[in-house]
Amino acid sequence: MFENIGMMLKLRSAWSTFSSNHPGVAGFISQAGKRGIGEGSIIDVRITYPDGTHLETNMRVTASDLELMQTLREIAAQKNK
To answer: What is the DSSP secondary-structure string of 10-51?
Structure first.
């Protein structure tokens, strides 16, 4: 029980620091969470390295992706009981 509380406090502190350091990203994640990501949505990811090179990819969200996310949420909920 106390281990979970400690982990929750650690996560809260880490999220607070992340939000302060990257307010645009934190706001983006919040908005995406409110609206949700549905089947057919496209997620683009791009990393630009300090030397100027970059790596990018994208994915179209499928029904099986959403099922995987739901399964992971259920597993996490069971662990928190």
So the answer is: HHHHHHHHHHHH-HHHHHHHHHHHHH---TT-EEEEEEE-TT
Per-residue pLDDT of the chain (81 residues; tens, 9 = 90+): 456 788 888 888 998 999 999 999 988 988 998 998 999 999 999 999 999 999 999 999 999 999 998 998 888 777 766
pTM: predicted TM-score of the whole model, two decimal places: 0.67
By C-alpha distance, which of 13, 45, 40, 11 is closest to 28?
45
